[in-house]
Amino acid sequence: MRLERKNLQGGHRVKSKKAYLFLSILLLFTFLLSGCIRIDQVQEKPYIAVVSKSTESKFWKSVFSGVNAAATEYGVDITFEGADNEEDYLAQNKLIEEAIANGAQAIVFSAIDYTQSVGVIEKAVDAGIYVVIIDSGIDSNKIDIEISTDNYAAGQMAAEAVLQNDAEELKIGIVNFDINSANGRQREAGFKDKVLQDERAEIIDIINVDSNISASDNDTKEMLEKYPEINVITTLNEWTTLGVGYAVDELNLSDQIQVVGFDSNVILADMLERGRIDALIVQNPFAIGYLGVENAYQLIKKIKDTKPTIYTDTKLITRENMYDEASQQILFPIDSE
Amino acid sequence: MKHATKRKKKDPIRLSILLIVLISGLTISLLGICMISFIVIYSNSLYQAVTMNSEQVVSQASKTIENYADGMREDLQLIAAKIEHSRSIDESREVFDFMSVMQNEVVSIMLYDQEGNLLQYGSKGEQLKNDIKNNLSFDKELFEKEDYCITSPHVQNLFSNYYPWVVTVEQKIKMDLYAEEVYLVMDIKFSSTAAYVDNVGIGQQGYCFVVDSNGDFVYHPQQQLIHSGLKKEDLSTISMLEDGVHKVENKIYSIQTLKDGNWRVVGVSYTDELIQSKIYEVLKLISINAIICIIAAGAIIIEISRKVSKPIRDLVEAMKAFEQDAGNYRYQQVNGIYELKTLSSSFEHMVVIIQELMDKVKKEEVTLRKTELRALQAQINPHFLYNTLDSIQWMCEQGEMEKAVKMVGALAKLFRISISKGREMISIEDEINHAKNYLIIQSFRYQNQFQYRFEVDEDILSYCCNKITLQPIIENAIYHGIDRMVDEGEIVIRATQEEDDIVFTVSDNGIGMSEDKCNNILNKDLNNDHGIGIKNVNDRIKIYFGDKYGLHVTSEMDIGTTITIRFPKINENEGRDEV
Which among A23, A31, A332 has CB closest to B165? Predict the structure, then answer.
């Protein structure tokens, strides 16, 4: 009886020892695991893919600076990629597909084409990726936030600059870029609505050119040959402004023709100083890039309900105010070197 | 009953609940204390670390910018020394070109007269504009005031298609070539400084910017946002703060004024972001651990409950069961920790011993009772004897000899059977005869008061029964049933068999008994003349044959009483063996 009991207890003790060993191993394991969780948390930065129209123009470089500033500030990983030329929406769509495949948590996107990227963007939205549109939108209501220049207002600002011209008649030629681009159309609409309120104004011709210097240069020359009476040219982005500036200069029409353009770079600043261009509507690309990433970050972190549309400011820069302290920083962003 | 009520009143806590409350309470409070003290210590040290970090970063940045400014000044002095005594414009120009090409950061070196007319310049080959309007690199007011000065960053607009951001350093010098003092001016690229300031990070979201002594921005990494009103910097507060680290709302400002007293470097970091997010992270970690600890505590509780609490409960149940029915209790050992198993086996041991003891006591008790009863039986109630002898005497005196002889005979038989050589068990025949003799005697005493009748199954006469079972019952029937009747009563005695049992019934048609009395009759020792009560009969049968057997009383007021005696068939031999 006594012997039996002893045996029984011995057996049980081994069993419970095993249980305690198991329990302590489990505890140790969980502590190790929780340590891992922490390391993961530290390493895990949100990834935001920025897909732009281009990476070359001054405008987009400045957007990139803003994107970088926000990325540093909020500690996010970003990629900044764009199409090689500002008509290649297929390249953009491919970049978006890649961003989806790479597990981007948000995509900051500027559309080349108002309609062609809708499918791929909606696919991203359906995959749970936040989409922030900057600068130029698409035909979709699934977009979380849109950040851009108020293009209609910017168009109106260009019109105001034109209307300061004291010529008796304003024979206006408009050099716009890709007809499918939303912001180009909005700028044009704003400009037309405002400028045509003045009786002096008459729109002679509107051309849509490829968004590069040479196309704009050539097509502008063509237009000016066709309609020599034009004394005002409004052109609606950086490349077309450069093209128009060159065309006017090459035709020696700087003094006769008032040129109101968009955006800025060193050459445009020079043209403005020399009088080949008379006014520039300068957007705030840095702010667009910065706000794009900031809002994407806030969406990812669900920090607050951001407004669906955010407009960044534009400034009218003329020869007279170009060296004001405030204008200096807009016209010559410090990241220009 | 008493036990139960006491239980209900105090409702003592169960061990398992006590353990759960204790362990989980201890775990939670311990974790809570750890958490709070950890957070306090951690946030304090974090705040210190953050403060120190931002102080270090700002001091580093200040030093870098100071070095940069010193370098510029040294360069300018070097150039000044070289051109001071140059004899021709070409000679000094050579120095300018050489220096501006050599020094990567230098955009251009200029020499102005006091009106701002450009006298000479050297550059990296950029084309000077034909008509320079509004030269941003020449600040007449500032230059007149100081011998040496540095301007805020601005755009340089001297060369065509080249608009770099520069800071301008100026020194008044006297040259052999010019009669009046001239301004030696050097424009130095600001972009590298800007890039440096851009890259100064404090924590995750902290940054650095530079203000001048007036409290205006010299450079801010996000000045475009500030210009467009998207971001604000509280410059008025900052201009009031002295050098050092200050906490303003949720921001930590670390400010340092540069050596020359002109520029101040301001580091901004966020307490929220740096401390709270870390604490939040730590809290998350701690809560994960807390949950794990609580789960572990739960596991431990379950284990303890399995190993300690449940066995104790089992043991308690076992003891309760034992308490309720000790005789038939079968013990099942409990599992659990060593101590409990020891306790359990001790209890088992105790159960066995107690049961053995109980059996022993029972047997001893039975023996004792038997002895007692036998002693009782042996007694002759003196009243009965006296009454009977008195009756006989009276008969003799009346000359009713026949009756007297019958009575004496009956008395003699009664006593002979009563004694029965001291045996407990006698044949049913003898018992019936005993009853008959008793009734003969009583019928003389209670003349004409009752009649009696025997209905006996002849087959059972040879079986045995306890002696003097019928007599006390008949006695009861006479004294409590018939005696008080007005009419003549009748007593019927039946002896029958029912399967393995013998059943005697004694019925009377007397006044009957109340329910209380029926109960009492079996439980109380009612003394009667013969000394042996009904209870005694019942007890004896139960002691000999078990609880199944014994007496049963049915009675109805004014109708009569029937007492049934049941006991098993016992053969003569068995009956003898009993004694």
Answer: A332
With beta carbons under 8 A apart, name residues in chain B contacting A330.
224, 227
For position A9, what pLDDT does the model report?
42
Helix axes B382-398, B401-419, angle to 10 degrees: 160
Q: What distance in Å separates the CA atoms of residue B575 and residue B428, rounded to the nearest whole number? A: 11
Q: How would you classify residue B254: left for phi > 0, otherwise alpha for psi between -120 and 50, otherwise beta?
A: beta
Q: How many CA atoms lie within 13 A of B209 on its CB side?
A: 22
- Chain B nearest C-alpha distance from A250 (Å): 17
pTM score, whole prediction: 0.58
Buried-exposed string B212-246: b where 16+ CB fall within 10 A, e elsewhere: beeeebbbbbbbbbbbbebeebebeebbebeeebb
Q: What is the CA radius of gyration of chain B?
A: 64
Look up the CATH architecture of domain B14-309: 2-Layer Sandwich (3.30)
B128 CB within 8 Å of a chain A CB: no
Average pLDDT over residues A223-246: 92
Using CA atoms, how far residue B344 sits from A4, A108, B312, in Å, is 15, 74, 9
Contacts of B155 in chain A (CB under 8 A): 323, 328, 331-332
Token digits of residue B390: 């008195």
pLDDT-based confidence at B529, cuts 50/70/90?
Answer: very low
Fold of A47-148+285-312: Rossmann fold (3.40.50)
Domain B379-577 homologous superfamily, CATH: Histidine kinase-like ATPase, C-terminal domain (3.30.565.10)
Q: How many Cβ atoms are within 10 Å of B74's Cβ, its own excluded?
A: 10
What is the ipTM, given to two decimal places?
0.72
pLDDT of B347 over the 80 cut: yes
> Which CATH number is A151-282's, of 3.40.50.2300, 1.10.10.10, 3.10.28.10, 3.30.1490.20?
3.40.50.2300
